[in-house]
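Tip: read the tokens left to right.
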């Protein structure tokens, strides 16, 4: 009888211990007591996929993969290569044959012929572009072509200067000229050049009017 009583007491104690253990595991931690709950799952969740509209290729690409570039259409023109060097512009200088021959003075010792042409009519108080072409018949040095300063004429450029000239060399200059209403009807151009036996010089007359058609270059004897 006493043995059964002891067994019953042991069962009650064992049951009480088990209840105490379960109660201790499920109760919340007290203030200051470390939380000994199970560690949270740190596995990163998969990104949500975009809704598919039922068409192939509508899903988003996987992370880390580059999206393929769109293929060019058959009618698209080929890409143009960049051109770092600007293309040269066309030469707008008039031909020597179309230019007028300037009138040389009676006393001239420079073996140079001078040609000229205006881009338009030389109207009063309106700038016009003048083209000059000096043609050297001999080799020389320090060719200097300068328009003489005159009242009623404004020039937008300085003289033409060439260090060395060759036989039949053509040396051009273009400048803007503005003539007032009371200005002269012509320009005076001084041409000088160093020669082997001295210095040659001479004046040429360039009228503001159209003048005669282009003339053949006339040889001038060196004096």
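Filled-in amino acids:
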């Amino acid at each position: 009888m006493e043995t059964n009583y002891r067994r019953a007491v042991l069962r009650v104690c064992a049951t009480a211990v088990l209840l105490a253990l379960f109660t201790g595991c499920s109760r919340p931690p007290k203030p200051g007591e470390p939380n000994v709950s199970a560690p949270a799952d740190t596995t990163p969740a998969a990104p949500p996929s975009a809704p598919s509209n039922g068409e192939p290729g509508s899903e988003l690409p996987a992370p880390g993969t580059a999206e393929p570039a769109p293929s060019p259409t058959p009618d698209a023109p080929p890409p143009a290569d960049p051109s770092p060097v600007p293309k040269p512009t066309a030469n707008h200088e008039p031909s020597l044959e179309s230019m007028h021959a300037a009138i040389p003075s009676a006393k001239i010792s420079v073996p140079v012929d001078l040609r000229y042409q205006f881009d338009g009519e030389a109207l009063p108080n309106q700038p016009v572009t003048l083209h000059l072409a000096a043609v050297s018949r001999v080799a020389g040095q320090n060719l200097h072509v300068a328009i003489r300063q005159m009242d009623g004429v404004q020039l937008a450029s300085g003289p033409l200067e060439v260090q060395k000239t060759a036989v039949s060399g053509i040396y051009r200059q273009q400048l803007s000229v503005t003539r007032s209403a009371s200005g002269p009807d012509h320009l005076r151009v001084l041409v000088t050049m160093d020669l082997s036996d001295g210095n040659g010089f001479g004046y040429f007359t360039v009228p503001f009017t159209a003048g005669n058609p282009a003339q053949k270059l006339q040889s001038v004897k060196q004096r």
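Residues 50 and 57 are 11 Å apart (CA to CA). Helices lie at 2-26.
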